[in-house]
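User: Can you recover a sequence for this backbone? Please restate the input before giving your answer.

Assistant: Of course. Working from this structure:
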């Protein structure tokens, strides 16, 4: 009935997540509030881990793309699942290391890593630096030399695959700010340079073809292209890659219209295509890394708001305004992303209205969604926006000096705060 398997309705007609009454959570912790379901995150991690075991004999590592949601507790949880982490900034590396996340299981990404980030990664022995461009390759060689270290890298390449998804989040095609293009020869040139540089140890290659992709074929194709690139590298240089990192991007269900595959299907397509091509080309099977972000955590999260005013503009629309908005969920403003929304204290009632849900920021585009089917909402009701576990908290801002909400984790119906609500003191902390 609901978009995510962890949602239900209790005897009071209230929405529940992982068995916890969300109206109670809103009362206890206040709104806006991010709520995550630990059981579902763990289940998702297990599914990916098991799929790598099943389809690739366990010869791989699932790295959580922590840009989807990053805080100390999530790194503790991911560490507990024996997974790796894809970090993309000093802040993500620092947060993960602060809870003892094993550095060697971390991959540092980024199209324009700062010298500070590169130094930090080298000093802290971050497992792999995913090199994006020639400047970075040379900087890294110089820095590693100064530090008397050898930088273990993989090269980010563009396999030239145009995955069908929102245009802003396509990254595998030629016109992308990320990586070296294979088809122009740039990726081969980068590889040859990497092999020449003294303080660089090349371990393999990486690609990421986009995000929120519903089809397994682009992933299979990317695996084939990467195997072909590996073969060309071997033919031209005699070097055989130890590992391939094929990124993330597996789609999730935000609304009833979305029809993603089960996560095992994506992994299967990748593993089988890669193994088949490696056999065909006479290559050893590389250690395989995948980097799911959204698919591990999106469906495990909801955001709770309190309804404020309701404004009906005759013959135009009805606005239901909430106490958050683009500051805690910028995805509608950025991508027109759609969500399922429920009046949490009326979850057993029919959705008999179609409304626009407005945030509280001074900006007309500050909407959570338009034309949303909803139970009849009144001021004081609690709204739950579903499947907001990914790219909501991590993209939150303080626009209009709004405070970032707290994050609450629910496990077996018990809740605990994992990120405190920001305070007014937090807001002015760095102001002089
Ligand atoms: N690996 C790399 C190198 C990436 O760039 C990304 C996402 C991932 C893995 C994880 O992708 P996922 O499995 O989460 O789709 N802010 C956008 C999404 C941007 C994704 C950027 N890269 C959104 O809210 O939809």
């Amino acid at each position: 009935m609901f978009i995510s398997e962890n949602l239900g309705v209790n005897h009071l007609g209230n929405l529940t997540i992982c068995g916890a009454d969300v109206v109670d959570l809103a009362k206890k912790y206040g709104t806006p509030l991010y709520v995550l379901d630990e059981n579902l995150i763990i289940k998702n991690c297990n599914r990916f881990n098991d799929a790598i075991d099943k389809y690739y004999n366990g010869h791989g590592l699932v790295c959580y793309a922590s840009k989807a949601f990053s805080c100390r507790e999530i790194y503790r949880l991911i560490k507990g699942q024996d997974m790796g982490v894809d970090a993309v900034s000093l802040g993500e590396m620092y947060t993960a290391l602060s809870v003892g996340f094993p550095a060697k299981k971390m991959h540092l990404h980024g199209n324009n890593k700062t010298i500070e980030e590169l130094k930090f990664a080298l000093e802290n022995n971050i497992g792999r630096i995913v090199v994006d461009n020639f400047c970075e390759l040379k900087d890294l060689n110089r820095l590693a030399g100064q530090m008397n270290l050898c930088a273990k890298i993989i090269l980010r390449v563009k396999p030239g695959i145009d995955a069908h998804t929102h245009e802003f989040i396509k990254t595998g095609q030629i016109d992308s700010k990320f990586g070296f293009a294979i088809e122009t020869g740039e990726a081969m040139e980068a590889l040859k340079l990497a092999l020449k540089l003294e303080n660089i140890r090349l371990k393999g290659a990486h690609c990421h073809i986009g995000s929120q992709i519903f089809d397994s074929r682009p992933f299979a194709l990317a695996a084939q292209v990467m195997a072909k690139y590996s073969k060309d590298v071997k033919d031209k240089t005699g070097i055989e890659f130890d590992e391939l990192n094929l990124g993330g991007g597996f789609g999730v269900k935000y609304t009833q219209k979305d029809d993603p595959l089960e996560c095992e299907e994506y992994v299967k397509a990748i593993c089988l295509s890669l193994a088949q091509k490696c056999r065909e080309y006479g290559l050893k099977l590389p250690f395989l890394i995948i980097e799911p972000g959204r698919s591990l955590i999106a469906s495990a999260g909801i955001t709770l708001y309190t309804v404020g005013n309701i404004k009906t503009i005759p013959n135009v629309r009805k606005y239901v305004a909430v106490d958050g908005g683009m500051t805690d969920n910028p995805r509608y403003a950025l991508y027109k992303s759609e969500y399922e929304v429920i009046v949490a204290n009326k979850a057993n009632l029919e959705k008999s209205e179609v409304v626009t849900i407005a945030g509280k920021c001074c900006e007309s585009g500050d909407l959570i969604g338009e034309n949303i089917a909803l139970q009849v909402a009144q001021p004081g009701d609690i709204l739950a926006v579903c499947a907001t576990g990914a790219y909501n908290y991590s993209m939150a801002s303080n626009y209009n000096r709004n405070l970032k909400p707290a994050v609450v984790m629910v496990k077996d119906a018990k809740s605990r705060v994992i990120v405190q609500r920001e305070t007014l003191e937090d807001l002015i902390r760095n102001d002089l």
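That completes the design. The pocket of LLP is lined by residues 65, 67-68, 86, 109, 169, 208, 211-212, 247-250, 291-295, 331, 391 (CB under 6 Å).
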